[in-house]
Amino acid sequence: MPIAQYGVLCGRAIDRQPGSGAKPHYQIHVIDGSTDYRIAVNVASALAPSEVEYLIEPQFVHPVLQNLSDMSPGWHALSSKPGGAALDFIRTNLFDPRKMVPLPINAPGPDNDLNEKLDHYVQRAMADEEAMVFAFGQRWGPEAGKKDAYFGFLPGNGVHDIHMNQANVGQFTKDDGVYQDGALLLHYPAQQQWVGIFLKFQSQTWHTDDKTGHQTTVDTSGPTDPAPGPGPFVPGNPPTPDRPDGMLRIVSALVNSIESPEVETVTLLNATPKRIDLGGWKLLDRNKAATPLSGPIEPGETRRFKVATPMALSNKGGMISVINADGLRVDGVTYSKADASLPGYSVKF
Question: Which residues in the chain come in under a pLDDT of 50?
Answer without folding.
Answer: 219-235
